[in-house]
Design brief:
The complex is a heterotrimer of chains A (382), B (281) and C (153). Chain A contains 13 helices and 16 strands. With 382 residues, chain A is of the alpha+beta class. The longest helix of chain C has 26 residues. In chain C, 29% of the residues are buried. The chains are: A alpha+beta (382), B alpha/beta (281), C alpha+beta (153).
Chain lengths: 382, 281, 153
């Protein structure tokens, strides 16, 4: 890894476009941020003109607004309601179809649905989301079993990451150790640098040999000391804009020791159990399998997103295990911040702030974690 | 038992099995005797489970109730409790069932070799323990002693009694049966299965307990054994939660840090004790 | 015939009890067998006996006019049967019917109670052994009350 990242180059927006073109020529489907229905979403993009040029956002607990910026940034916004997981772990995915021949004694024929989709290139992945992808890779690929559909999409994935310059008010990546500077998990990393009245320019570095190959093909100059200082300023400014935080010291024990904390009841009185937080979360991985009748004698089995906030989620013959909203919220937050560490050796929260922004009643995971820490009857060693 | 299953490339693809026999065990319980249509032997470890479905009827996790030394016939015993088991109950001989598995960690059978093993089964909790009875039957001397404490709600809910009486007559098991609700035609013991524990004697160091049944029964059962100075680490539970993927990626069956499907369903009591009394965990 | 002290002290209930106490008990004990369907005692009658089961199975039952005779619990090897003699009014609350033939040590409970009064350390020794069994049976009853195998709600 050490050989990557040591060389940084300065490129223009035009060269950034030529990277996009090169990826498309190589057969990648390029996916990036774009504006749709008053929000920034991730969709297939053809050119940099599809990006939210000069668009930023304002986010707070329970609120999200786009705003016009006074510059021409391509990446002048923070987390969006979409995350990249929808491309690697689609909200609905066919697993197989099964055909029952009319002749009742003939066995059913199972057709595994292995689709050969073009490889994906993600354009503009922030550090928090790089970490989220790394986390989902652990969940879906590091078994003992692996999820074949996820594997087929994650295998050929190309990532062009961007150092986050404009965190929103709901961001807290720095306290989770996941940003704003991207450290690993990318093929290419760019930092967008404002250039007065002129078009922004970009510093670029490779994180993989595939990234290096691409850099080799474009017009570039070596980054100067002054460029590197500007890059540093961008990151430092971003860090200064992050005010929310979660104290992670001893957080697993804190939550394990507070399963019966009275605060859960207070949260439950506000929580609508709507599952928004789980759908916008870039690491939430819950799903269910459903059988859908297609035509006569044909059934399809689909994997669809599910959420621990639904009553049916824990259904057993004797009834649901988690009947109360309290228990469902507690499961989500305790899983994210505590039991995930036992399960996957890593926190399930990357500090992207989506769950705070998109909660219809503005429940703030950072605030709740802080309250539980401050009022914990059991002192957690710090 | 040396044939451990591989991890398939796509773990969600089931295999069709044909129903060779369907047997009613009680008014709401039936067994399916299944043969793989590819004729390949089906190996599993006692305590593991499969995902079963009638075509188009959705999947459910069902423990394996067959003889692990006979990989050519797979037996599942099911209680009709929901849509999936209802769809399966409508199938008949020569119909097809979709099976994927086996999944999960089963009973620690190497740990109990040549030891006294006490099985505590409650209600529909008996089938996952049956493979152990078959081991004892096929391999005499595998266990030093095999004791079965079996409880059910009423006499009519008791399953596999002819098999159990046969094993008792062959001195393969010591059998204690108790029903919770009295009826005139029941001449045996009354009371929850835990009430059978105080009257049995065993050597603490050489005795292990495997239990499957309602969680509350297992909890009280464990306490009763601990009261008799059985080391806590000698007690194992088979747990039930909603399972959808069976491989630890769908999130449904979590119990705090554990995925019941891949970290269990069999757990040392010691590992989960503190989680069982937290409401709605 | 009185059972020998060495035979008595093998019963789980009396295990580890001091020799003088065992001798005291031996003096008021008889060793009896009961056939299936016979009664150790009958509800409402004077509770003047204390049974330690060596073998067999006993059902505690009561009569419920609309439903007939109902079994509440069964008690087996190693257990005690009957503790109504401990407190007034010294009447049996339930009947004890033999299911599997029983061998039991049977003590004169009136004498036993008197001996316990006179020698509190002996009395405490007996009570200390009865209380865990009472607790055990209370817990079992509570669990039965929960209807743990009940049909899914």
């Amino acid at each position: 890894m050490a050989r990557f990242g040591s060389n940084k180059f300065k490129i223009t927006k035009r060269e950034l476009q030529s990277i996009l073109d090169a990826l498309k020529r190589k057969g990648f489907k390029t996916i990036g941020p774009t504006v749709s229905k008053d929000a920034i979403v991730y969709e297939e993009i053809d050119s940099l003109n599809d990006l939210p040029i000069g668009i930023g956002d304002e986010q707070e607990a329970g609120s999200y607004r786009l705003k016009k910026r006074t510059d021409a940034t391509l990446f002048g916004f923070a987390s969006s309601p979409h995350s990249w997981k929808q491309f690697l772990f689609p909200a609905q995915e066919k697993i197989f179809s099964i055909h029952q021949p009319t002749e009742k004694t003939s066995p059913p024929l199972i057709d595994p649905s292995v689709r050969q989709d073009p490889p994906l290139a993600f354009i503009g992945v922030r550090s928090c989301d790089l970490q989220a992808i790394a986390i989902q890779n652990r969940v879906f690929l590091e078994g003992p079993y692996s999820h074949a559909g996820y594997k087929s999409k994650a295998k050929g994935l190309f990532i062009l990451a961007v150092n986050c310059a404009y965190p929103s008010a709901t961001c807290f990546c720095s306290s989770m150790g996941t940003g704003p500077r991207a450290k690993s998990g990318f093929d290419l990393l760019v930092t967008e640098i404002l250039n007065g009245q002129k078009e922004p320019f970009y510093l670029i570095e490779a994180g993989s040999s595939q990234g290096e190959e691409i850099i080799a093909q474009i017009e570039k100059t070596d980054a100067t000391e002054e460029d590197l200082k500007k890059e540093k300023d961008v990151i430092q400014n971003a860090e200064k804009q992050i005010h929310r935080r979660i104290e992670t010291q001893g957080i697993k024990e804190l939550f394990y020791n507070n399963l019966q904390h009275p605060r859960w009841e207070e949260i439950a009185q506000r929580c609508l159990s709507c599952a928004n937080c789980t759908f916008v979360c870039p690491t939430c991985f819950c799903s269910t399998l459903i059988d859908i009748p297609k035509k006569a004698q044909e059934i399809e089995r689909w994997m669809v997103w599910d959420s621990c906030f639904t009553l049916n989620f824990t259904h057993t013959p004797a009834g649901s295990v988690r009947k109360s909203v309290l228990s469902r919220y507690r499961q989500w937050m305790t899983h994210k911040l505590a039991s995930w560490i036992d399960q996957f050796g890593i926190s399930g929260c990357v500090g992207c702030g989506r769950c705070i922004t998109w909660c219809p009643v503005g429940i703030d995971i950072t605030e709740e974690a802080e309250i539980i820490r401050k009022t914990s009857p059991v002192k957690t060693p710090s | 038992m040396d044939h451990l299953p591989d991890f398939p490339e796509n773990p969600f693809i089931p295999k069709p099995f044909v129903i060779e026999e369907k047997k009613r065990e009680s008014p709401s319980v039936f067994s399916l005797y299944l043969r793989p249509i590819d004729q390949l032997p089906f190996y599993f470890l006692p305590g593991q489970f499969n995902m079963l479905s009638a075509i188009g009827g959705g999947e459910a996790a069902i423990s394996i109730a067959s003889d692990p030394t006979n990989p050519h016939i797979l037996i599942h015993t099911l209680r009709i409790v929901g849509n999936v088991t209802k769809a399966l109950s409508k199938l008949d001989k020569n119909d097809f069932v979709l099976v994927r598995g086996p999944y999960g960690r089963g009973w620690p059978i190497d740990l109990v070799k040549r030891k006294t093993l006490i099985l505590v089964a409650g209600g529909i909790g008996l089938p996952p323990l049956l493979p152990l009875l078959y081991i004892a039957q096929k391999n005499k001397g595998y266990f030093k002693n095999l004791i079965l404490l079996y409880g059910a709600r009423t006499k009519d809910d008791l399953l596999f009694m002819p098999l159990l009486y046969k094993l008792k007559a062959e001195q393969i098991i010591t059998l204690h049966v108790s029903v919770d609700r009295p009826s005139r035609d029941w001449k045996g013991q009354f009371g929850t299965v835990t009430a059978l524990i105080p009257s049995i004697s065993f050597d603490n160091k050489e005795t292990f307990v495997f239990s499957c049944g309602p969680e509350i029964m297992m909890r009280f059962m464990a306490r009763a054994f601990i009261q008799k100075n059985l080391p806590k680490e000698h007690i194992f539970f088979s747990m039930e939660r909603n399972m959808k993927c069976a491989i630890g990626i769908c999130g449904h069956c979590q119990l705090s840090p554990f995925f019941i499907c891949k970290d269990g369903p069999v757990f040392p009591y010691e590992k989960i004790e503190h989680l069982l009394t937290v409401e709605e965990l | 015939m009185n059972p020998s002290p060495s035979l008595l002290c093998e019963h789980p209930f009396l295990k580890g009890m001091s020799e003088p106490f065992i001798h005291k008990l031996s003096a008021i004990a008889t060793h009896l067998s009961f056939k299936a369907q016979s009664y150790l005692f009958v509800e409402g009658q004077k509770a003047d006996k204390f049974f330690l089961l060596q073998k067999g199975l006993v059902a505690l039952e009561t009569y419920f006019p609309e439903r007939g005779i109902l079994v509440i619990q069964t008690v087996g090897i190693g257990h005690v049967v009957g503790w109504s003699w401990i407190c007034p009014p010294f009447l049996w609350h339930f009947s004890a019917r033999v299911i599997d033939p029983v061998d039991a040590f049977v003590f004169d409970a009136t004498c036993l109670r008197q001996m316990m009064e006179e020698d509190p350390s002996f009395g405490y020794e007996i009570i200390k052994r009865i209380i865990p069994l009472m607790l055990e049976r209370l817990q079992a009853t509570r669990l039965q009350f929960l209807d743990i195998y009940g049909p899914p709600s």
